[in-house]
Amino acid sequence: MKDLVILGAGTAGTMMSNHLAKRLPDDWRIRIVDQRKIHHYQPGYLFIPFGTYKEEDIIKPIQQFIPERAEYIQQSILKVDADHNRVYLEDSRVLDYDVLIIATGTDIAPEEIDGMLGDHWHKSVFDFYTLDGAVKLHEKLESWEGGHLAVHISEMPIKCPVAPLEFTFLADAYFEQRGIRDKVKISFVTPMDGAFTKPVASAHLGHLLEEKGIEVVPNFNIMSLDGERKVITDYEGREVSYDLLVTIPTNKGADYVERSGLGDELNFIPTHKGTLQSKAKENIFVIGDATNLPASKAGSVAHFEGEILLENVMRFINGKELLDEFDGHANCFVETGHGKALLIDFNYTHQPVSGTFPIPGVGPLNLLKESRMNHMGKMAFKWIYWNMLITGKHIPFVSSKMNEAGKNFEEANV
Fold first, then answer.
1. Which numeric CATH code is attached to 2-106+253-318?
2. What is the pTM of this model?
C-alpha cells in the first residue's frame, strides 16, 4: 500500500481529497489531516458584520465533505520531515507518505504588528478574516453611531485581496441604509500605491472609492498601533487616527511550515508556478494559500490549481513529465454595495480584462462592470462552493486556464 497524505482540510485540501479519491489506483491510501472539526465558507466572513449571514449560515462539519475512501485525522501537525517522507502529529503519531500535498492555507497574525493586540482587540480594533472577528464586528457595528472608520491592510500578500475593498464598499452602503452615512468618515489605508494589486482594476476600484466619498491613504506601511490614542503609525512617521479600525493583519502560513524548514519568512512554501510542485522535494506538492506563488490567495485560484494538480499528481506517480500549465488564473467577484458587484478575471500575465464570463460574447456576467447580475453570481457562489467546488466537481464553462476568447487584453508586467 502506498500513501498520499494531504495536510489541511480547508477549501483546497478537501477539494483535492475528492479529486484524488476518484483517480488514485486502489493500492493507494489517502489520509487528510486537520485539527478542526468544522469547515468554514470563508467568503461568507465578509457578510457577517453587516448581518447578511449569521455564523450558522457558513459552517458545516468537515467530515461531511471528506470522501469515504479517505481517512480523516483530526489532529494538529507538529512537523514535516521532508528528508524521510514523514509527518509528525502533536499526539505523537507519525504518518509516512509517498506523496504529500500541503494545503494548510494562511491565517492572520496580528501579533506581528507592534501594539495591534491588546485590550482594544475586538473592542475598537477588529478583523473580519476570522469567524470570531466577523461576529464581534457585527455586534460592534449594530450599535456604532459614527466617527472615523479606517479600513486597513497591514502588508501584502493577504488572503482574498479584494475583500478589504468589498468591506469598505459594503460599509458605505450599510451606513447609508442606517441613515448615518453623514456621520461616518471612511478611509481605506493600504501599503499599495492604489486600491488594488493590479493597475487596471485599481483604476476602476479607485474611481468607485472616490465616487462614494471614501479617502484613500496609499503607501502606508504600518509600524505600530497605539490602542489608547487610537492611532496607527507607518515607518515614515505618518499617523492615521480612527474611532473604529477594521484591519487585515499580516497573513502567514502555518507554524509547522517554519518548524519543518519548508517556508519563506512568512511561512509560505516556495512552489513551481506552473506545476505546483514544491521546490524542496519532488514528492511534495503545494496548493492554495500555502504557496508563495504570485497569484491571488483566493478560493477560485485553489479551484483552478486543483484540476492541474490532480493531473500532475497522477503523472508523478506514473513517472511522467509534469504539466507546466497553471497560469495564475484568478476570478473574483467584488461587492460594491447596494446589490451590485464587479467581476474580475486575470492571470500571471494579463491584467483584469473587460468582456463577458463565462461564455465568450454571451456572459451572462460582465467583467470589470458593476451589475446586479454579478452580485447575484457572488451570492450564488455559496451553493456552488458547498455542492461543486469542494466536492471536486467540474464547474461548467469555467476552465482552469484563463480563457482568452471574447476578452479585451492588456499585458501586465508580472
1. 3.50.50.60
2. 0.94
